Amino acid sequence: MGKIILTGDRPTGRLHVGHYVGSLKRRVELQNSGQFDEIYIMIADAQALTDNADNPEKVRQNIIEVALDYLACGLDPAKSTLFIQSQIPELCEMTFYYMDLVTVSRLQRNPTVKSEIQMRNFETSIPVGFFTYPISQAADITAFKATTVPVGEDQAPMIEQTREIVHKFNTVYGGNLVEPDILLPDNKACLRLPGIDGKAKMSKSLGNCIYLSDSEEEIQKKIMSMYTDPNHLRVQDPGQVEGNPVFIYLDAFCTDAHFEEYLPEYQNLDELKAHYMRGGLGDVKVKKFLNNVIQEELRPIRERRREIAKDIPAVYKILEEGSIRAEKKAAETLAEMKRAMKINYFEDKELIAEQAARFKSESEG
Ligand code: ATP
Ligand code: MG
């Protein structure tokens, strides 16, 4: 069996450095590794509408932003199929059948959905579509027979749910769906990058992001105003690196080479952390270093993005062609599913013959 990747992002905003370290950077590496037979990257507009039903324009505007971020980071349409979720109607059909295999209480247990409901103040009125989006995500993954889903840690419950649905489908219907594996970042700091406000997760919906497309000035402003250790008031005070976003970002982004280039008085991050914990190292100095590191990483992405944005119709064309390719694959899987569920009445010659014989014998008997 071939190795297949499916992953994606919601077009609820431009992509940020959390996406980059949590998933996007890895995707590009995997794409270029040559180890995968098929790669599908989905812009999840239908999922974005589950909590933005009253704001379709936001979703519509952000599709191109996400596509530009993809291409700027190095996703290559010659190697990866980039497509838009809503253009694949088969996914809705699959979702509808998967809904029969999942209980309400199982959905209620999903910790990511639980915290997202809280974050969006949905407690008293959860849209059904939002509540059930993990089921639709199972359709997204299984439609492409994905073996591997490179995502951030918040997606682990979705992959678990998908595996359960696949198992149930295959057991009940004798189907041939594939149980996917999650592929998390190796670097612990990248699992769930916090926001610049120190909140648990950098998230488009929380507005605490450094975007891949931010200008040099915007990035610098955000980094210099970042939340750090609130008890580290004076330079001489000992500081905490644990849970301190500035140090978590350094964990995610910096290498020893960055020290050589921008902060040669330290060999590596361990030495810098030790000094901060001892006291005598100010936040401003650490932030300036972080700014240098992040600017170096984001500059080429921003410049490529600007180049690609010169031909927007070409970007839509890439998405259109990708969507056509993706639909073909999803339609094949759906046809197999319907065969397994025995709801392929018109191609089931045996069924028709069987029923004909039954009615014939009834009328004769
Ligand atoms: P929204 O607030 O609309 O849900 P989001 O910022 O959470 O947006 P998604 O589109 O939901 O972004 O997530 C896309 C991918 O990026 C997923 O694989 C997710 O795990 C990963 N991801 C999102 N935020 C982070 C983060 N802060 N750290 C690491 N990975 C992240
Ligand atoms: Mg999210």
TrEMBL record:
Its EC number is 6.1.1.2. It holds the Pfam family tRNA-synt_1b. PROSITE patterns: AA_TRNA_LIGASE_I. It comes from the Bacteria. GO terms for molecular function: ligase activity. Keywords: Aminoacyl-tRNA synthetase, ATP-binding, Ligase, Nucleotide-binding, Protein biosynthesis. InterPro entries: aa-tRNA-synth_I_CS (IPR001412), aa-tRNA-synth_Ic (IPR002305), Rossmann-like_a/b/a_fold (IPR014729), Trp-tRNA-ligase (IPR002306), Trp-tRNA_synthetase (IPR050203). Belongs to the class-I aminoacyl-tRNA synthetase family. This is Tryptophan--tRNA ligase. It comes from Enterocloster alcoholdehydrogenati.
